[in-house]
Backbone:
């Protein structure tokens, strides 16, 4: 079992060594047991109920770097959404399982990024303690974010500093600070205030140090012995609180969740259930659900998506931004607000519309975002026919049945489509014969190459059914003057139009099981493997029994023993090299 | 969801099927028989080529505010007798007659419409050979740098405000449309919209497909109805006796163009309408409109307002007053629009709006 390499170097900062500088030249996070952060067992009432899922499975403890959205949510939840944070955390790389979140446990942090983190921390800390400016309509954040007033603004006040450090530090570190830790931070605040003759500047230095502390920036799973499984371990209460919170809220635990961790209540089935219900009823669950679907649907690609403005004049940056938002709004509304069948997300005509997006759908809109239902005679049904999916999985200047088919299989059905061979000849699709008018005709020519045919057979019959939508997601009935044939098939089920494909996907047995696999892996922070099979089978049954309701699936995942159980990491493979001694 | 669908249904929205960018089941021309457009570009319709020497052999206008001032007051003088005196002429141009040479365009080709149905000696020939084009304003301003495209200050800035100023958000809604190529009897209604135009992917143009709510708060005075027909894809309306078209050329200074015999001639597609507004421009209102442009801007085109006023009066060619002086001048604007869905306020919204005012 590896341990987290976290080296914190205290250095003399600009305030004469007043704050922490979490400086590592390359902080490599890996699978970690985190024995050094082990906490005491807090409750004996930990026997899981049998109907909550398999008891002998669990996940490997990890240390994960906070995502950019989690960092942003943390700052907003702790200090308020008016605190500007910049972009201190870069995007992650997508893992082979299709999720970004599962790569958060194996990222490198170069020195340049640490500088960005520190710059952001400095800015945030300055804003938190600023005294405001009425002329600029800036609030005095210190008046409500610092829970006390110092005896004097220009001198240390250890009692007031301790109050701020204890309350704010608890939220940022996601656990209570012990007296020694508080005293340490207070000492730094004291030094800063004394040196700068400014109580709030001293406090800002401390806050800056907290914000670049690896234990704030990383979500570290810490473990303790599991009384229900002698010889085994489980997440400690604080780590369980964090895991729940980052999964359901995509942010840090709030005071109520931390209290349940502090009391040990969260480790009991009934206590965890109470906390989970509270969390699921919180508005913050929208952040969690949106973050999951944003990750699963690979919407981070929107950050670099651009369309050829000469080809798709309506597809502006505003449209692409709204396209992403439309599907996330639809998913949250359909799955959580209305608690509808997950599979119906791919056939529903209910969505939301913005004025910019409406220009691409060529329908009228009302100002702002408003619920919208595609009429019964509309070719659109389900999120597969949203501009987001159609534009994201297309080329800048043309549609791509192959990319769309590949995305559907990989993103929604958890299937793997092999990459094209390195010497593939794309001439039939990229420099087409003028006599080939439609994508179907071009791809038919391309598939004449047997090297290409294998993969295209599993992607193109799906993607060609979406050819009624161009590379911008605009509806069309013809291409190159030829009427589009939107027939296709999905694993043996044939259809003639996009609505038929949507229904076939709706009925595909792989659709709900893929979601279960993705959501569980997302929740525990790692790719699922063969050892997770009993847990996934349990969750699949629960999901089906619930009528494919997402709140029930979320509940089943977080209440299952596996969510908090710790499993040993798989043994490293034995090198297949024979030595001379052998 | 249903309530919003109902709300949308309550809005009288317009749409058309097109060969591209098809409406997503929201209805076609067969259902609505209506299409809307929003103004994106306005330019005074003057014939011009790339060759300024050919267009204006006598050169471009040479006497703007700076030049006239220099000649009139070579040694300066008291402010009230020099600068303020000259500036006051901008507001009271009748106080002094024309004092400087004025360069009129002598081109034979012109842009516009044969307003009077006659072919006269002062009329132009269009680039396509149509005789009798009435556009006397081209004679007055065709050789002024301010009005030449694309670099002329007024062409550049005035047009920029067409998109950015809400005052200029002028819409047309064409109803009773059989098809965009042929309709024997359509009605065109002019409204003001309330919403920003949608920029396209290039960031330079305006994308079709936006939605515009009709401004029934401050836009009622400009609601006008014209009758017309569509032949070979071109909408031609009958003239209305008095017409107005808003065009604030200086930020949001709320100026209007007042026309006599105003009409529209527009080539229609599902995505755009391009063509002309034509008629006889009321001389006094046109002068007011142009002088909303500040003096320093007028200087860029060497357009002295008091001198221009007399040139305008001289070339005015319609609607004589009791003294026999012409009060209107034949003119035309090129008008570019993109398709927009036009949403009408429902009865409840209108009652609320009326009550507020």
Residues:
């Amino acid at each position: 079992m590896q341990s987290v390499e976290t080296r914190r170097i205290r250095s003399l900062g600009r305030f004469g060594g007043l704050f922490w500088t979490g400086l590592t030249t390359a902080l490599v996070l890996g699978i970690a047991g985190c024995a050094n952060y082990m906490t005491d067992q807090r409750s004996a009432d930990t026997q899981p109920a049998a109907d909550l899922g398999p008891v002998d499975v669990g996940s490997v403890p990890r240390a994960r770097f906070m995502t950019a959205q989690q960092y942003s949510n943390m700052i907003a939840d702790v200090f308020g959404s008016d605190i500007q944070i910049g972009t201190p955390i870069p995007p992650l790389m997508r893992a082979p399982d299709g999720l970004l979140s599962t790569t958060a446990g194996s990222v490198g942090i170069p020195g340049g990024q640490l500088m960005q983190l520190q710059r952001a921390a400095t800015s945030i800390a300055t804003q938190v303690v600023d005294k405001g400016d009425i002329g600029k309509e800036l609030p005095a954040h210190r008046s409500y974010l610092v829970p006390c007033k110092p005896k004097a603004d220009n001198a240390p006040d250890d009692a007031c500093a301790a109050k701020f450090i204890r309350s704010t530090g608890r939220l940022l570190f996601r656990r209570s600070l012990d007296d020694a830790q508080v005293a340490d931070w207070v000492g730094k605040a004291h030094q800063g205030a004394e040196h700068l003759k400014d109580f709030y500047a001293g406090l800002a230095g401390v806050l800056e140090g907290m914000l670049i502390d690896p234990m704030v920036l990383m979500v570290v799973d810490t473990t303790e012995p599991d009384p229900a499984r002698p010889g085994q371990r489980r997440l400690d209460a604080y780590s369980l609180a964090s895991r729940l919170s980052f999964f359901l809220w995509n942010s840090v635990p709030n005071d109520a969740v931390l209290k349940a961790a502090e009391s040990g209540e969260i480790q009991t089935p009934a206590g965890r259930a109470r906390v989970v219900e509270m969390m699921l009823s919180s508005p913050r669950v929208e952040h969690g659900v949106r973050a999951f679907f944003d990750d699963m649907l690979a919407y981070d690609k929107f950050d670099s998506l651009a369309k050829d403005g000469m080809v798709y004049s309506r597809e502006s940056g505003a449209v692409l931004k709204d396209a992403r938002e439309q599907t996330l709004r639809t998913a949250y509304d359909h799955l959580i607000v209305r608690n509808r069948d997950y599979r119906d997300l791919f056939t529903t005509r209910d969505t939301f519309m913005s004025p910019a997006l409406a220009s691409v759908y060529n329908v009228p809109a009302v100002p702002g975002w408003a619920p919208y239902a595609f009429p019964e005679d509309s070719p659109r049904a389900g999120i597969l026919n949203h501009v987001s999916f159609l534009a994201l999985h297309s080329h800048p200047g043309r549609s791509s049945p192959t990319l769309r088919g590949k995305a559907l299989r990989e993103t929604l059905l958890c299937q793997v489509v092999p990459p094209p061979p390195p010497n593939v000849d794309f001439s039939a699709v990229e420099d087409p014969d003028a006599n080939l008018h439609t994508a179907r005709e071009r791809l038919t020519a391309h598939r004449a190459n047997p090297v290409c045919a294998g993969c295209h057979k599993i992607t193109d019959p799906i993607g060609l059914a979406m050819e009624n939508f161009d590379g911008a997601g605009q509806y069309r009935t013809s291409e190159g003057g030829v009427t589009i044939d939107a027939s296709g098939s999905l694993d043996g089920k044939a259809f003639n139009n996009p609505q038929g494909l949507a229904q076939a996907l709706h009925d595909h047995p792989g659709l709900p099981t893929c979601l279960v696999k993705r959501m569980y892996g997302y929740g525990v922070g790692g790719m699922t493997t063969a050892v997770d099979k009993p847990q996934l089978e349990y969750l699949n049954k629960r999901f089906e029994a619930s009528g494919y309701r997402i709140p029930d699936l979320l509940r089943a995942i977080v209440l299952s023993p596996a969510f908090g159980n710790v499993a040993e990491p798989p043994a490293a493979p034995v090198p297949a090299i024979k030595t001379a001694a052998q | 969801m249903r309530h919003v669908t109902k709300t949308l249904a309550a809005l009288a929205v317009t749409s058309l099927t097109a060969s591209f960018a098809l409406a997503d089941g929201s209805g076609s021309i067969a259902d609505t028989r209506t299409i809307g457009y929003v103004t994106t570009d306005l330019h005074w319709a003057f014939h011009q080529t790339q060759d300024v020497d050919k267009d204006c052999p006598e050169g471009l206008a040479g006497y703007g505010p700076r030049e006239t001032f220099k000649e009139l007051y070579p040694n300066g003088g008291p402010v009230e007798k020099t600068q303020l005196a000259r500036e006051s002429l901008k507001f009271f141009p009748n106080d002094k007659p024309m004092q400087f040479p004025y360069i009129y365009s002598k081109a034979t080709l012109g842009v516009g419409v044969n307003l009077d149905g006659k072919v006269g000696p002062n009329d132009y020939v269009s680039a396509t050979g149509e005789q009798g084009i009435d556009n006397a304003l081209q004679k007055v301003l065709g050789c002024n740098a301010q009005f030449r495209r694309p670099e002329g200050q007024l062409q550049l800035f005035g047009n920029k405000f067409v998109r950015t100023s809400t005052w200029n958000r002028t819409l047309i809604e064409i109803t009773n449309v059989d098809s965009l190529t042929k309709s024997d009897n359509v009605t065109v209604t002019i409204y003001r919209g309330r919403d920003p135009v949608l920029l396209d992917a290039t960031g330079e143009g305006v994308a079709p497909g936006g939605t515009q709510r009709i401004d029934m708060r401050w836009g009622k005075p400009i609601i006008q109805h014209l009758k017309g027909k569509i032949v070979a894809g071109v909408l031609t309306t009958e003239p209305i006796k008095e017409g107005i078209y808003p065009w604030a050329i200086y930020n949001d200074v709320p100026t209007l163009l007042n026309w006599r015999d105003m009409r529209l001639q527009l080539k229609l597609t599902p995505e755009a309408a391009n063509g002309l507004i034509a008629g006889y421009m009321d001389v006094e209102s046109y002068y007011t409109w142009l002088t909303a442009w500040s003096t320093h801007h007028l200087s860029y085109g060497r357009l002295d307002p008091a001198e221009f006023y007399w040139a305008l009066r001289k070339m005015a060619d319609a609607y004589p007053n009791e003294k026999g002086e012409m009060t209107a001048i034949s003119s035309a604007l090129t008008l570019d629009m993109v398709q927009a869905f036009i949403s009408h306020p429902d009865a409840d919204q209108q009652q609320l709006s009326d009550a507020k005012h």
